[in-house]
Amino acid sequence: MENIEARVKKIVAEQLGVNEAEVKIDSSFVDDLGADSLDTVELVMALEEEFECEIPDEEAEKITTVQQAVDYVTAHLNK
Amino acid sequence: MSLQGKVALVTGASRGIGAAIADTLAAAGAKVIGTATSEGGAAAIGERLAQWGGVGMVLNVGEDGAIDALVDTISKEYGDVAILVNNAGITRDGLLMRMKDEDWDAIMDTNLKSVFKTSKAVMRGMMKARWGRIINIASVVGAMGNAGQANYAAAKAGIMGFTKSMAREVGSRGITVNCVAPGFIDTDMTRALPEAQREALVQQIALGRLGAAQDIADAVDFLASSRAAYVTGQTLHVNGGMLMP
């Protein structure tokens, strides 16, 4: 679980060009980390690659915070 | 060899403008994948491009899943597509009063929807690379209209609008999206026109002659190169002065 959170935070920091320390579990990509709509699409792409899964567009739209990304990945890796 | 190491996908590369584009990009150093709708056509492209290390592949843009599958194969075998030239196109001319729904749909699917699908398919690779070139072959007809080509003109004008939107969406990622709009070029497609219509068309061209496929290929070569890094969302008209928009 912690492992997933750390990996998600690392990807978020890399993709959005922010310091990893700024990425909190409740950070919103757009409101807190300055992502634009294209950044969020790229972020989902990066998550898909890191965790070797495919995130459907309907699900991707709901992932707007670090917590939501962690929850999604956790739920789908357990399957 | 300005395009050294870049993977370029050129659709409709068997004949005419597409063939000239494929050859020119390959000679400039790109790894060119040229597509044709048949096995025989793809093999012929492969033979032509072999001297530069290029290959021919089969692509029927209207076939479900074919575009994604092709882009996937290219990525695995040669690397992500860096330069996409959407050239494949057909005509189904006729006066509007006689134009069938099938004639409209065939042109929209092959000439316009395919541009959307190929562009979407290559986008992930280009965004990751922070570099990409999409060059869409439109037509002077998309800007000026032409009696008997309502479907074709609509699709080509559609490509121009698509190009501008794409350019705005992905500009921040170092990807440029442009059109080249050929005028009256000497190819099989225009050779099919009646002689009288050809002569009437030449009368409207400031340079007084038809263009060559190479004229279009040179424009594409420019837009694909680093020299055109600050050009995006544009339609480059290559028409001998037939239309000056």
TrEMBL record, chain A:
PROSITE patterns in UniProt: CARRIER, PHOSPHOPANTETHEINE
Signal peptide limits: none
BP GO terms, sorted: Kdo2-lipid A biosynthetic process; lipid A biosynthetic process
Principal place of residence: cytoplasm
Compartment(s) where it occurs, according to its Swiss-Prot or TrEMBL record: Cytoplasm
Residues in Carrier domain copies: 2-77
Any one cellular-component term (Gene Ontology): membrane
Keywords: Cytoplasm, Fatty acid biosynthesis, Fatty acid metabolism, Lipid biosynthesis, Lipid metabolism, Phosphopantetheine, Phosphoprotein
Recorded GO MF terms: acyl binding; acyl carrier activity; phosphopantetheine binding
Modified positions (O-(pantetheine 4'-phosphoryl)serine) in chain numbering: S37
Membrane-spanning ranges: none
Free-text description of this protein's post-translational modifications in UniProt: 4'-phosphopantetheine is transferred from CoA to a specific serine of apo-ACP by acpS.
Reported function: Carrier of the growing fatty acid chain in fatty acid biosynthesis.
HAMAP family assigned: Acyl_carrier
Family classification: Belongs to the acyl carrier protein (ACP) family.
Protein name (record): Acyl carrier protein
Species name: Vogesella indigofera
From TrEMBL, chain B:
UniProt cross-references to CDD domains, sorted A to Z: BKR_SDR_c
The Ketoreductase domain, residue ranges: 6-183
Reaction catalysed by this enzyme: a (3R)-hydroxyacyl-[ACP] + NADP(+) = a 3-oxoacyl-[ACP] + NADPH + H(+)
Pathway this chain belongs to: Lipid metabolism; fatty acid biosynthesis
BP GO terms, sorted: fatty acid elongation
Gene3D superfamilies hit by this protein: NAD(P)-binding Rossmann-like Domain (3.40.50.720)
Broad EC category: oxidoreductase
Molecular-function annotations in GO: 3-oxoacyl-[acyl-carrier-protein] reductase (NADPH) activity; NAD binding
Identification of the protein by name: 3-oxoacyl-[acyl-carrier-protein] reductase
Species, as recorded: Vogesella indigofera (Pseudomonas indigofera)
